[in-house]
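note to self: dont lose this again. the chain is below, predicted strucutre after it. 142 aa total, dont forget to put it in the shared folder this time
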Amino acid sequence: MLVSQILRAKGDLVFTTTPDERVAAVAGLLDARRVGALVVLELDRVVGIVSERDICRAIAEQGAAALERPVSDFMSAEVIFADPGEAVDSLLSRMTDRRIRHLPVCEGERLVGLVSIGDLVKSKIDEVTAEAAGLKAYIAAG
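---
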């Protein structure tokens, strides 16, 4: 299965923020949107990604003062991207190796979606389930 197929099924909505948004506001957005990460955009260009983990680390390091700092102080600026034509297996490996849970999907410089490790695992389970059902049907048909 390809990333583009996952995005077709789940949609291409990506929640974003800006580098100067305060950490407290970003935490509120994560909660309100019920997501684990926001893509950080500056003039439609991806400049980072901020996750719940980033906010937890910020508070652990700086306490409540971190909530008033800009998210750019704590976001992951070295963003790992996915391409719509990539296969799920390669992304699962990349995410496991890099210990990341979200990948912005870009076509060239344009952000076209976001996939999470949960999206990829779900698609892999669906694929394996369909394959098993096909094999059972084949065996039953004799």
